[in-house]
Design goal:
The chain has 210 residues and is mainly alpha-helical. Helices cover 44% and strands 8% of the residues. It contains eight helices and six strands. It has a two-stranded antiparallel sheet with strand order 1-2. Strands 3-4 form a two-stranded antiparallel ribbon. The chain has a two-stranded antiparallel ribbon with strand order 5-6. α1 packs across α2 and α6 packs across α8. The protein is elongated, with a radius of gyration of 23 Å. About 6% of the residues have low confidence.
Length: 210
C-alpha cells in the first residue's frame, strides 16, 4: 500500500507525536532522526521521522539508546512489519504506533482546513471558519481544566470535535511573543472580581488582654 508522505515542522511533529518540541529538537541535534532544511533555516520532518520519535521516547525507559538504534535498523529492514522484536522480552507494536500518528496527523490537517486568520476579525487571531471564536482561547480553556461540555455550552458555535482540533492545532502553532490582551483580540471583559489574599505570615491578634 502506497503512503503519501508529508512534511512537518518541529512544532507540528511534536503535536502529532505528542512529544515536547524541545525533545524533537534534541532528537534532531543528536541525529536520532534525520531532517531536511526548508528554505534557509527551517527544519522539515517526514512521517518516518515521527515514527522514530514516538518509538524513541516511547521505549526510552525500557531500552538503552543502543538497543533503540538496533530497533530502528530492524524496522528499516522490515518496513511492512506490524510488530518488531526489540529484545527477548519486548515486542514493539509498530502498526499501532503508525495508526496513532496517522490519526493525529489527519486531525491536524482537518484543523488546518477549519481555521483561518482574517484581518479585522478578532484582531487577526486564528479563529474557526465562519465564527469569531479564537482557537487558542479554546485550547487554553481545555488545558486549564475546562471540560469539553463546558466549553461547548459557553460557545454554541463550537462543537466537541472543534475543541479536540483546537488542542492539536494550538500545539502545532505555538503563539510567539507576549500573550495578547483581550482588547487586542477584539474581546471585552464582562466582569472583574477582586479577591483579598490572606497573609498567612502576618501575626494573629492576641485574644488576651493586658
Amino acid at each position: 500500500m502506497a503512503n503519501t508522505s508529508h512534511a512537518y515542522t518541529p512544532a507540528e511533529a511534536a503535536a502529532v507525536s505528542e512529544i515536547a518540541v524541545k525533545s524533537v529538537h534534541n532528537a534532531i541535534d543528536k541525529r536520532i532522526i534525520a531532517t531536511h532544511l526548508v528554505g534557509s533555516t527551517g527544519r522539515a520532518l517526514t512521517d518516518e521521522d515521527l515514527l522514530r520519535l514516538k518509538l524513541w521516547y516511547g521505549v526510552g525507559s525500557i531500552l538503552s539508546a543502543e538497543r533503540r538504534k538496533r530497533l530502528f535498523d530492524t524496522i528499516d529492514q522490515n518496513p511492512d512489519a506490524d510488530t518488531v522484536r526489540a529484545d527477548d522480552y519486548l515486542i514493539v507494536d509498530v502498526a499501532r504506533a503508525r495508526e496513532q500518528l496517522a490519526a493525529r496527523a489527519e486531525a491536524l490537517r482537518e484543523a488546518e482546513r477549519m481555521i483561518e486568520s482574517v484581518k479585522g476579525v478578532v484582531g487577526g487571531e486564528p479563529v474557526f471558519t465562519a465564527t469569531r471564536v479564537p482557537v487558542r482561547t479554546i485550547a487554553a480553556m481545555k488545558t486549564q481544566g475546562a471540560s469539553t461540555a463546558e466549553i461547548v455550552e459557553g460557545y454554541p458555535a463550537v462543537t466537541e470535535r472543534m475543541v479536540d482540533l483546537a488542542e492539536i492545532w494550538a500545539a502545532a502553532h505555538p503563539a510567539r511573543g507576549r500573550p495578547r490582551k483581550l482588547s487586542e483580540q477584539g474581546l471585552k471583559v464582562k466582569s472583574v472580581k477582586r479577591l483579598r489574599i490572606r497573609n498567612e505570615s502576618a501575626p494573629k491578634p492576641s485574644d488576651s488582654t493586658s
